[in-house]
């Protein structure tokens, strides 16, 4: 993989020029952002995957819902087997399969019970979602680079581990690195959330924090809540899984934090199947899970909540295996300040 990234290194300046020109056209109003008839909060990042956008979207949606706001979530629906506008839920009923909506928005709907839709065109999608559900707040999932729609608050979440690291094959622009945009793009952000996930707080180098000047800064972490049976929906405290030999199944962008979380709950993670991000499971992968489970004499299968929503459809094929997902939630260290920030001028 690193060799392939090196081969693509000459394309980095081309990519950098393209995004620089694109942003310049928006800044000079050559490309025009459009408004919709709702308050818009964008959640995004400057890297590809793994920062914690979906947990933050869920956190914001639940916060606004509990504050009496008519809130909906709009996503592109990455990895879905459909196109165009799809109403995923009206807040009560789910209208799509996970394959039609994508795992992230489906997970969000199950967790928050809020109206939600997917659409590549965020302006059209937002207007249609407003029309379909009469919401007055929209949370845009993964929209920092999608500048065609005006937003009232632009929030960027960044993983602490990324901020303190210095890896050529990560801290570089695509296609060699993992960065969608350079750190200077944070100038567009209104607020930054530093997500330390399951790690302790560490000092971030000044060469990175200088881009935070003038922004609202918040810190956050993940908290393991429970292990949930994907079929029965029964929940169990993490303590009940201490020392348990489980087969770990993951198909997310950055499995490091998931494995770290399991280690902190003292689950034995020596047996694992790691798939690519947004893995669409088929019978082939299900049989591979079954084979690995029995060959390793595992007690159970543990997976992520995003993977669980896709594995549920194979409950019949996996009915002889206990499968659990680790339920986590994002916690903002200064919850009151974040709440006040979200609700200010609204």
Structure characteristics:
346 residues, alpha/beta, Rossmann fold, 13-stranded mixed sheet, 12 helices, 23% strand, globular
Would you summarize the structure shown here?
The protein has about 350 residues and is α/β, with parallel strands linked by helices. It is built from twelve helices and 13 strands.
Describe the structure.
Helix 3 runs parallel beside helix 5 and helix 5 packs across helix 11. The chain is 32% helix and 23% strand. The chain is built from twelve helices and 13 strands. The protein has two domains: 2-221 and 331-343, P-loop containing nucleotide triphosphate hydrolases (Rossmann fold); 223-329, Rossmann fold, CATH 3.40.50. Strands 1, 2, 3, 4, 5, 6, 7, 8, 9, 10, 11, 12 and 13 form a 13-stranded mixed sheet that branches. It has helices at residues 2-7, 12-27, 53-66, 98-101, 103-112, 122-133, 160-164, 206-209, 255-264, 283-295, 305-311, 335-343, and strands at residues 39-44, 71-75, 86-90, 115-118, 137-141, 153-159, 191-195, 216-229, 235-236, 245-250, 268-274, 300-303, 323-332. It is α/β, with parallel strands linked by helices and 346 residues long. The mean pLDDT is 95.
């Amino acid at each position: 993989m690193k060799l392939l990234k090196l081969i693509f290194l000459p394309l980095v300046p081309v990519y950098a020029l393209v995004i620089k020109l694109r942003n310049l056209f928006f800044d000079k109003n050559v490309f025009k952002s459009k408004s919709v008839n709702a308050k818009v909060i964008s959640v995004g990042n400057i890297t590809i995957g793994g920062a914690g956008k979906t947990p933050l979207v869920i956190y914001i949606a639940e916060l606004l819902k509990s504050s009496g706001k008519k809130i909906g979530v709009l996503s592109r629906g990455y990895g879905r087997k459909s196109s165009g506008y799809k109403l995923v839920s009206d807040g009560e009923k789910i209208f799509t399969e996970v394959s039609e909506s994508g795992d992230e928005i489906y997970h969000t709907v199950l967790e928050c019970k809020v109206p939600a839709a997917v659409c590549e065109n965020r302006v059209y999608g937002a207007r249609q979602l407003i029309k379909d559900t009469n919401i007055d707040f929209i949370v845009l999932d993964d929209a920092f680079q999608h500048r065609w729609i005006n937003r009232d608050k632009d929030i960027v979440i960044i993983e602490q581990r990324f901020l303190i690291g210095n890896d050529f094959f990560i801290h570089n622009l695509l296609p060699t690195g993992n960065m969608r945009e350079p750190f200077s793009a944070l100038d567009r952000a209104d607020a930054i959330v530093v997500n330390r996930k399951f790690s302790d707080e560490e000092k971030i180098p000044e060469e990175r924090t200088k881009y935070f000047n003038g922004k609202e800064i918040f810190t956050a972490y993940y908290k393991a809540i429970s292990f949930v049976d994907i079929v029965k929906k029964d929940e169990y405290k993490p303590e009940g899984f201490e020392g348990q030999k489980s087969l770990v199944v993951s198909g997310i962008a950055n499995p490091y934090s998931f494995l770290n979380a399991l280690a902190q709950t003292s689950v034995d993670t020596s047996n694992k199947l790691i798939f690519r991000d947004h893995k669409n499971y088929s019978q082939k992968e299900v049989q591979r899970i079954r084979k690995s489970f029995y060959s390793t004499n595992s007690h159970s299968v543990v997976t992520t909540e995003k993977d669980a929503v896709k594995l549920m459809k194979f409950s019949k094929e996996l009915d002889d295996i206990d499968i659990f997902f680790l339920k986590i939630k994002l916690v903002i260290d200064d919850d009151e300040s974040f709440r006040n920030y979200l609700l200010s001028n609204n």
